[in-house]
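Interim report, section 4.2 (structural modelling).
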Amino acid sequence: MIELVQTYWVYFLVGQYPNGPLGGLALTVLLAALALVLALPLGVVLGLARISPFRTIRWPVTVIVYVVRGVPLLMVIFWAYFFLPSVTGHKTEQFSTMLIALVLFDGVYLAEIVRAGILGIPRGQFECARSLGLGYWRTMRLVILPQALRHMLPSLVNQFVATIKETSLGYIIGLTEVSFIAAQINTQVFTRAPEVYGLLALTYFVLCFGLSRVAYGLEQRLVRGSPVRPAASTVTAVQSLKAPA
Amino acid sequence: MIRFDKVNKWYGAYHALVDVTEHIAKGEVVVVCGPSGSGKSTLIRTLNRLEPIGSGTITIDGEDIHRRGLDVNAFRSRIGFLFQQFNLFPHLTALENCTLAPLHLRRLTPAAAREASLALLDRVGLAHKADAYPSELSGGQQQRVAIARALAMEPPLMLFDEPTSALDPEMVGEVLLVMRALAKDGMTMVCVTHEMGFAREVADRVIFMDHGRVLERGTPEAFFSRPEHPRAQQFLSDIRTPFAQAA
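Predicted structure of the assembly:
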């Protein structure tokens, strides 16, 4: 075990870098981080569109959400890898393929989390902000989303953890992320699969556990300003969104 | 100042407001009362366009407030609205609740907004709670912060939609005191309330509604001592002797 780690740790962490492309754990972390950072704003935009008072915005986005949610991530990756080049004319390299697939896929899931978060805010909050003279966007930005994001945090963390693990599907299209590297190491040492894959599992666990703890800490910090009162109204913000302003 | 002219509103087939024609003068304090479902909350909510109307016109200072193309946000920022459920923003402190709209709509500097809001919190007796979150305040305190928040936009008109109905009895008084002080300062106020003591003492006029119609209007003395409409007579006798029917 020790010897295995000693021989392969650099390869495991960064792949062939600096003599080749960046790979290994570093690539996994980079991919996951970029996917999270890009998917969250997409999720917020799609989530807002899902509850837009305008059908022309709401309907197309609803279709996208249903379609993407209805296919496996693996298929989204295949589409991005095989189908996208036939449209754009040039081959997409693995990293951006994987990133696009993850951002789209997770953006859609996050959109539903965002939607649920917004719908969970009592309608009175929306009406009250509007009655002060704040417009739709200011109401969303200053009043509704800050509250909704707090409620959404556990679900967001869930999705973020899933995203970290989903990067392992890059293996399928030959992206040299940490699972791919582990498989490479396994073919080289041949007889030590339990140790190699055990270490791989531990690596993912540490990443996900770390993220969960950071999120938990954040949640604790937000507790003071969070609503303790139960929602006063069962009617939610979205019904007032649909009322003419 | 406010003029309702033949205002009608329907919720589907339900006729919520029926030919409401009413005039409210500047500086007047009007209490709207009536049994639940009588349309009084609907009426007050049409005044800042939280509810659209079906037909008729509502004008404030001569401006048709339900016309298309009205700058709704600018219009609403000139009307204070108090809700039964307070609706303080739970993620902001009492002070931040008050400064939010002035910071973004009146373009005040943070220091100026803070100073003005602290003065308002002081006016409702809660300067010492400026840094408390709503969850740390009692219902009465929350409603007083909500009043300070509404005043922060310096509106010439304040609307109250059953401001004390969600409060425990011992907290009703503190909110009514703040409202009475506002009335004394000459604020134009329209209050939907069941607080008949407040109506009797503070209101210039009482409007009685039932089934979407204004059935009676008059001074508090006239309304409470000589109600003319049978429905108003019954309403008053019901609230005076709540156990009469059971006995």
